[in-house]
Amino acid sequence: MTFFVTSKGVPNGANFGGLKGADKHCQAVAATAGGNPEINARDRIGKGPWVNMAGVQVTADVNERHSDKNKFNVEVGRFNNGRGIPGRLFVINQHDILTGSTADGRAYPPGKDMTYGNWTKSGKGSAKVGHHDRMGLHDDAPSKSWNSAHPSRGYSAANLRSSGGAGLLYFFAAN
Questions:
Q1: What pLDDT, on the 0 to 100 scale, is given for residue 35?
Q2: Which CATH number is 62's domain given?
Q3: DSSP character string of 80-143
């Protein structure tokens, strides 16, 4: 297994204590699933491929991951324990996954903070989230984006829950 969505967030919503804290959270969750304990963004994730707990290849490489050829959907997106993630059509919706990135997996320019200050803030503001189930309120590409669907309603756990999130992260193991 080299890909999963964390099955739980942290008490402070999107405040992981920085990128190192987000990495540490993913490593701890990966250890419980027997996965490779590393988390990496587009420029630090390795070459792929990435496979979920059921052995399904999610994407072959970085370029495919950010193209229409990736296989992100409600069936492929799984928690580290193998359970399905409640999507938009569930009573409890957890399809918002924290990414902070543009659709091509890059950081936003300086002055446009979409990562809660590199995952260190609590309080007011928002971060970019993706939809693991590729379902949105509209039938447009951004609404269906796995990594760049819309800004969150805030930093806190309550604000993340209010729009269908739980402070969850994608995990991509490095090669």
A1: 55
A2: 3.10.100
A3: TTSPBPP-TTSSS---EEE--B-TTS-BPPTT---BHHHHT--SS--BEEEETT---SSSSTGG
